[in-house]
Amino acid sequence: MLPSAEAAKLYQTNYVRNSRVIGLLWAIFTILFGIVNVTIFSQPYWIGDGVDTPQAGYFGLFHYCVGDGISRDMACQGSFTEFAEIPSTAFKAASFLIGMSMMLVVTCIGCFSLFFLLSTSTVYKICGWMQAASGVCLVLGCMIYPDGWDSDEVRRMCGEQTDKYSLGACSKSCWLRARREAMPNQILRFLNFHVSVFMKYQSILNISLEEGGHPRL
Q: Membrane-crossing residues (predicted)?
């Protein structure tokens, strides 16, 4: 049997290695999640026309283009800076929430620089709360967005059968991708939690080694 000091050092080595691997995976997934989040926010094809739609066009969170039914030209309106031009209150709320989700993830990535200033566990906790808030905003935005499908502009493109949470003849590819994006956020929170536990346990091991005792759980 290994002496207590050697056993503690072995435990510490294993936990440091495991925590670094999980931390690296967490950082990579956070950056990828941020890229996808920015793409989802700026993507104008949350809902789009289909084979049976009366007119061509597409809708994003805040930008949309709808044809006139005669030519292939489309009239485009809306931008995030022109909030009043967004055709639905639900679209406005979804734009704000998805935008907040994006900003939280981008800020979380920026917080990586805090590893040089603060303890590792503190940075993971800060980023964990940001990712949790980002996930909540993302889910709420995706839930609220279909409430605006009954607006006149959407009905003009998708048909009169379009209603709240019923898109009629239009497609909803990007909206579905945004919903699926909530799952990677849960994975990030899972990894963040485990890295935080590893960091806490590593500090306990360090204290045990300094005191010359056994590792305490």
A: 21-41, 96-119
- DSSP structure string for 30-69: HHHHHHHHHHHHH-S-SEE--TT-SS-EEE-SS-EEEE-S
What letter would DSSP give residue 75?
E
**CATH code of residue 144:** 1.20.140.150
On whether residue 2 sits in a domain, the answer given is: no
Q: Measure the CA–CA gap between 76 and 68, rounded to whole angstroms.
A: 11
Per DSSP, the three-state class of 163 is: strand
Let me know: does 59 contact 47? Beta carbons within 8 Å.
yes
Contacts of 70 (CB under 8 A, 6+ apart): none
Q: Residue 79 carries which side chain, given as an amino acid letter?
A: S
Domain count for the chain, please give it: 1
Residue 217 lies in a domain: no
Rg for the chain, CA atoms, rounded: 24
Where on the phi/psi map is residue 82: left (φ > 0), alpha (ψ -120 to 50), or beta? Answer: beta
The CA distance from 149 to 59, in Å, is 10
What per-residue confidence (pLDDT) applies to 111?
92
Other CB atoms within 10 Å distance of the CB of residue 154: 24
**Residues 42-79 pLDDT 10s:** 888 888 887 788 888 888 888 888 887 666 678 888 88
